[in-house]
Amino acid sequence: MTTATTPQAFWLAGRPATGAHTLEVTSPWDGRTVGAVSVPTAEQVQEAVAAAEAVATEFAATPAHVRAAALDHVCDRLAERAEEIARLISAENGKPLKWARVEVNRCRSVFRWAADEARRFNGGAAQRLDTDAGGVGRLALTRRFPYGPVLGIAPFNFPLNLCAHKVAPALAAGAPILLKPAPATPLSGLLIGELLAGTDLPAGSWSVLPVPNEDMPGLVQDERIPVISFTGSAPVGWSILDSAPRKRVTLELGGNGAALVLADYSSEADLDWAAQRIAAFSNYQGGQSCISVQRVIADDSVHDRLLPKLIAAVEALGTGDPSDEATDVGPLVSEDAARRVESWVEEATRAGAKVLTGGTRDGATYAPTVLEGVPADTQIGREEVFGPVMSVTRVTGEEEAFAVANDSRYGLQAGVFTHDVQAAFRAHRALEVGGVIIGDVPSYRADQMPYGGVKDSGVGREGVRFAMEDYTYERVMVLTGLDL
Asked: Is 107 a catalytic residue?
């Protein structure tokens, strides 16, 4: 692990390098310096891009077993160093240690799935063409090939696993990757580089560049990088797409996830389960997850029994030092982030919302908060709070529940608590989101499944195979003169 006095090198075309400046990384919990990283110069960034472009053709032709072995290597090293890496995540991000361990395990899963997909992915399909007279003796064979180098821009909230979701699919598909970790949390992304350095991948096929956000426009518009994969805020994501309209751009831009509790989900055991899951996943990662529960939409018939259970479950969560094994909810990424959440709650209460529990701030930590009566035109009513805050809304019937859930410019995932399989299919059809989770919160994600949204939640899909499809295109070959 890096120290404050020894800046950690970044990774330029597969080798360690240092630049002219240093970035300090501080803990959101207590402000201590937990590391320092060397920042690439503009010339070094250009060198990394040139190396990626130069190796693209060679890397696309690399045998699948070579790419798979490299990805397996990273997976194995993550397992060997899991506790060390979890503590690194917790230190730079403020994530409670229990959730940091989950993130390491998920990252291992991403690299394991990528190794498997590298072995079987080619998008190949054979199509006979003699369905028309002019196609007699002809066969079409389709395969997928990389567009070229990928620029992966990762956020701070999952500093290891969301870097993995950029790196692993690109390498599995044979596309060079230029990874830009978030400035607040670069250490985890650089650690992935450290693990990749132990592989046999060709030089230039990967770089990890902790460059400042203000230096990104030039990279985004560089014609040598045909693919951009961005996870972050909607304004930044759409500005990237607008500035590079001819590129393949995938955007995961967040949401304000709804958990719907329908009328049939009515036993005490049902409501206990729903309350515990909603409380946990409104507040895990300090609420700094795109699919955390922000809105609870409860049918009138269960609302009055669910609400006290929700409040009790939220108040039972342990808040404090992220290195403490008992901590469920740690700080936000910065005190400024906590102040923003505080200001949004204050705005909602001035507009008529009621704080049922929480609503206080201590430095970068904001207390897990439950609100009711939040007006739709407030920040919390219409935007992504990205903090440990949920609002509870009473509705009458399934149709109104779906309408309230859809009354949002975001559409990432929704959770629907129901036992009715017909209601589940109606929800799947009606809810304007990229994923519908039945019987649980919207926060469930398996890293191999398609993940992404609609509306202001973005375009494209993560999930290893689905990202690989976004990074590649189909090329058809027609064989002629065959005796089929």
From this structure: no
